[in-house]
Amino acid sequence: MTFVALMVFSLIVFQSLPISLLPPIDVPQIVVKINYPNASPEAIEQNVLSPIREGLMTLKGLEDMESKAGGEVGTIRLSFDYGTKMELAYIDVNEKIDRITSSLPSGLPRPQVIRINTNDIPVVRVQVTPKEGINYNEVSLLAENVLKKRLEQLEGVSLVDINGKKDRIITISPNLAALRALGLTTDNVINAIRFGNEELPGISVEDGQFRYYLRLATRVDTPEDIMKLPVPGEDGLAVDLGRVAEVKYEIKEPLGYHLTGSQEGLVITVHKQASAKMNLLIPLIYESLEVFKADYPEVTFELTQDQSMLLNAGISNLQTSLLFGGLFAFAVLFVFIGNYRTPVIIGISLPTSLIISFLVFYFFDISINVISLSGLALGLGMLIDNAIIVLDNITRKRAEGLDLFEACVEGVNEVQSALISSVLTTLAVFIPLVFLSGISGALFYDQAVSVAAILFVSLMVAFIFLPMLYYFFFRSKGDKIMDNENSKAFSGILKGYKALFRKVFLRRKLSLGIFLILIPAGLSIGFFLDTQGLPPIEKFDVMVEIDWNEPIAALQNKDRIVSLMESIKGKYSKAESDIGVRQFLLFDGESSIQKASLYFLFESESEKEEQMRLLGNLIAQNFPQAAVGIMDAPNAFDQLFNSNMPYYEVRWKDLATKKPIEEAKMDQWLEVFPVDQWERGPALQKEASVIFRLDAAKMALYGIDLSRIQDQILRLFGNFSITEIKRFGEITPIRLKSKDINFEQMLQTNYLIGRDGNEYALGNFISFTYENHYKNVTADKGGIYQSVTLESQNPSDFNAEISQWGADRNLGVSFFGQYFRDRENIRQLIGILLISVLLLYFILCAQFESFIQPLIVIFTLPLGIAGAFVVLWITGTSLNVMSAIGLVVMLGIMVNDAILKIDTINRLKIKYKSDPLMNSSQILDKALFEAGEIRLKPIMMTSITTILALLPVVFSAGLGADLQRPLVFSVIGGLTIGTFTALYFVPLAYSFISKK
Question: How far apart are CA 299 and CA 296, in angstroms?
Answer without folding.
Answer: 6
